[in-house]
Amino acid sequence: MLEIDNLHQYYGSSHILRGVNWSVPQGSLSTLMGRNGVGKTTLMQCLMGVQPAAQGRIVLDGQDITRLSPAERVRAGMAYVPQGREIFPRLSVHENLLMGAASRRAPKGIPDYIHSLFPVLRDMAQRMGGDLSGGQQQQLAIARALMSQPRLLILDEPTEGIQPNVIDQIGDALQWLQREQGLTIVLVEQYLDFVRRIADRYAVMRRGAIVAQGDREALAAADLTALVSV
Ligand SMILES: Nc1ncnc2c1ncn2[C@@H]1O[C@H](COP(=O)(O)OP(=O)(O)O)[C@@H](O)[C@H]1O
Ligand SMILES: [Mg+2]
After folding, report:
1. Is 143 a domain residue?
2. What domain of life (predicted)?
3. Does the residue 45 lie in any domain?
């Protein structure tokens, strides 16, 4: 579904992405792992168009999207849950969700399945986003991304700093979205147990390139600790 071909990116003279090649199959839950600072977030920002790619190609369902704006990519079916969540602290939970629908023809209200996945968002609909716990904010960020009715959902370290019971809920939600809604999911994640529980493909990034990848069996067998830990 998503093909990344020889992608390069720089911050000033620092060469961050050094020829990333990666394919994400339709309907998969594909994880990207790697130590802090190797370029995972930069890659996600290039995928979403938040940063332009210096060189290389990104293809979604056969369409070259490398030069599209973030809004055009959302219309093409992509949604993004950034690292650190970036919800709107001074808008209510309900308003945060509506912001997620602003870039597309908005659904009428909040789809029921979003409240089934994350019941806390209904209970707290009128609370300010900034008053929620970290785990609740992460659920809100995922729900906000779902409001654009994506086919491809990109999440950057959604378990970072989140308590274990909420991590389990997020894992269940991602599996349900993949299996029942047919979403393709790209998950940047350093929490290996979580990855092993839900992912069916993995890739490891090191110094701006993918250096290892494989399927679910390879993921269970591989010794990834050294490639992943901070
Ligand atoms: N806005 C920026 N300006 C300059 N350097 C940056 C910026 N953002 C990230 N970097 C650097 O680029 C490298 C990759 O960062 P990042 O993509 O955030 O890595 P990861 O998500 O894998 O931790 C790091 O060395 C980081 O310090
Ligand atoms: Mg990052």
Report:
1. no
2. Bacteria
3. yes
Tell me, in angstroms, the distance from the centre of ligand 2 to residue 63's CA. Answer: 27
The tens digit of pLDDT for each residue in 191-224 reads 999 999 999 999 999 999 999 999 988 888 877 7
- Per-residue confidence (pLDDT) for residue 216, from 0 to 100: 86
Lowest mean pLDDT among 95-104, 140-149, 152-161, 204-213: 95-104
Evaluate whether residue 107 is within a structural domain: no
Domain residue limits at 6: 2-86+151-228
Q: Say if ligand 1 is within 6 A of residue 46 CB.
A: no
- Say yes or no: CB of residue 168 within 6 Å of ligand 1: no
**73-89 pLDDT tens trace:** 999 999 999 999 999 99
Q: Which of 79, 88, 174 is nearest to 137 (CA)?
A: 88
Going by their DSSP bridges, the two strands 2-11 and 152-156 should be labelled as unpaired
Residue in 8, 10, 13, 14 to alter for ligand 1 test, most ligand atoms within 8 A of Cβ: 14
Report the number of distinct structural domains present in the chain.
1
Tell me which residue has its CA closest to atom 18 in ligand 1.
41
In a domain, 209, yes or no: yes
Q: Which residues pair with 10 in a beta bridge?
A: 15
Looking at residue 220, which CATH number applies to its domain? Answer: 3.40.50.300
